[in-house]
């Protein structure tokens, strides 16, 4: 059990209902585990739901005595998004937290990148997230409260070669965070983004080792982030500890200054 899970006795999200996309691994799985440890009921959204995933979610339920429900969601498919919104609305009278974590990677030089690839990445990393958020924010507004957390990336700010498509999609996401925060504030909904640096997820394994090590070397802490490092910040932004924080992008990158 992690240190943050041990702090679960504080139950910072007791009786809250949270939606987390990309929940089957990496940052998303760390977030649902942490939220459950703090008392939240979780809808764990993912594209593919296999037996192993269901077993892991059951283990989380048993450990923390909360519901962790797997939900099929493909952010590249508008029908899937609308179906997920409908299922969530039918399964809960309130939504307190939305973590837009799911995303897809892309790495190639601009002149070598097709428009089809750019559209594919933006469909998942931006447009799909926007449609999901529109639907779920309406449910949050009914209760005049909520926290939306968008997982951006330091790639939105660091223009390394080969990152134009992915970085631009994440930059759009961070910019949208600010506008949503402005518009949703009167409904009591806070909107913030987290910009992780190099993090030990599937995307970490797909990075060119030289590029990965360059970014780590540029950080003050000289290491990659663990998914739990990101989940800890998501917990802060989801809880009342951040009740007066909105419209911000929090960089969790080990001090890339």
Automatic annotation (TrEMBL):
It comes from the Bacteria. This is 3-oxoacyl-[acyl-carrier-protein] reductase FabG. Its EC number is 1.1.1.100. PANTHER family: SHORT-CHAIN DEHYDROGENASES/REDUCTASES FAMILY MEMBER (PTHR42760). Keywords: Oxidoreductase. Coiled coil: none annotated. GO terms for molecular function: 3-oxoacyl-[acyl-carrier-protein] reductase (NADPH) activity. The gene is fabG_10. It holds the Pfam family adh_short_C2. NCBIfam families: PRK07231.1. InterPro entries: KR_dom (IPR057326), NAD(P)-bd_dom_sf (IPR036291), SDR_fam (IPR002347). It is an enzyme of class 1 (oxidoreductase). Residues 16-197 form the Ketoreductase domain. Belongs to the short-chain dehydrogenases/reductases (SDR) family.
């Amino acid at each position: 059990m992690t240190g943050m899970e041990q702090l679960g006795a504080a139950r910072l999200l007791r009786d809250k209902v949270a939606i987390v996309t990309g929940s089957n691994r990496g940052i998303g799985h760390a977030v649902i585990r942490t939220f459950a440890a703090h008392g939240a009921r979780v809808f764990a959204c993912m594209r593919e739901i296999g037996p192993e995933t269901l077993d892991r979610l059951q283990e989380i339920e048993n450990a923390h005595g909360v519901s962790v429900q797997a939900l099929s969601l493909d952010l590249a498919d508008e029908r899937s998004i609308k179906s997920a919104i409908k299922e969530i609305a039918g399964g809960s009278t309130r939504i307190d937290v939305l973590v837009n974590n799911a995303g897809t990677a892309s790495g190639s030089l601009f002149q070598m990148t097709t428009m089809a690839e750019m559209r594919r990445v933006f469909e998942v990393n931006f447009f799909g997230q926007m449609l999901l958020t529109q639907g779920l924010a309406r449910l949050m507004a009914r209760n005049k409260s909520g926290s939306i957390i968008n997982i951006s990336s330091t790639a939105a700010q660091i223009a390394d070669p080969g990152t134009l498509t992915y970085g631009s999609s994440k930059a759009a996401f961070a910019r949208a965070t600010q506008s949503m925060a402005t518009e949703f504030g009167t409904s009591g909904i806070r909107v913030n983004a987290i910009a992780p640096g190099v993090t030990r997820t599937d995307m970490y394994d797909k990075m060119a080792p030289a590029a990965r090590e360059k970014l780590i070397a540029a950080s003050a802490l000289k290491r990659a982030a663990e998914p739990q490092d990101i989940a800890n910040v998501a917990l802060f932004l989801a809880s009342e500890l951040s009740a007066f924080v909105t419209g911000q992008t929090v960089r969790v990158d080990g001090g890339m200054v």
